[in-house]
Amino acid sequence: MCKFNKIKHKNVITCTEAVIERKISLKQELKTLLLDVNSRIIAVHIRGSDRLKIRNIKKIFKTKNIFFVEKEFLNYVNLDKGRINPWNINFCQYNLICLNIFNNKFMATNNGKFDEGIIFKTDELLKIENIILGKFGENK
């Protein structure tokens, strides 16, 4: 786990709800998406303000078969949308981290709970295993 500061707040699920409670900008909220890439589970970490650039992921893995993981898989790994963060998904084969994130000194995400967030230095993400850095998000 990384070094962080906890923030208690009311239950949130989406990045938009989280930034209101955490009183930060959407560019400072980390969005972690889980994808099925040719039957491999990967995580993509982008800013809450950004949209996923799926074509860049297709190029890396040389495939057209990329899907968001099914709700049943999230249930199997005891997670829900709104509780996924870079430190509770050790089952992922790769962690794709968008370079846009490093435009911020600090980021925030959930602490594996709907009612608790964490604020951390962005370079903490570089300590995650199996990372690939790239342009995986773009402004909406």
3D structure, described in words:
The chain is of the alpha+beta class and 140 residues long. The chain contains three helices and ten strands, in the order βαβββαβαβββββ. It has a five-stranded mixed sheet with strand order 5-2-3-6-9. A three-stranded antiparallel sheet has the order 1-8-7, with helices on one face. The protein has a two-stranded antiparallel sheet with strand order 4-10. β7 (106-113) and β8 form a beta hairpin. The protein is globular, with a radius of gyration of 14 Å. The termini are far apart. The model has no long low-confidence stretch (mean pLDDT 94).
Q: What quaternary form is this?
A: single chain
Number of strands: 10
Order of helices and strands: EHEEEHEHEEEEE
Gyration radius from CA atoms, angstroms: 14 Å
Mean pLDDT: 94
* N-C termini distance: 30 Å
Category from helices, strands and their pairing: alpha+beta
Question: How many helices?
Answer: 3
Question: In which range does the helix fraction lie?
Answer: 10-25%
Q: Name the shape in a single word.
A: globular
Question: How much beta, percentage-wise?
Answer: 35-45%
Low-confidence regions: none
Q: What is the makeup of the main sheet?
A: 5 strands, mixed
Cross-sheet strand order for the largest sheet:
5-2-3-6-9
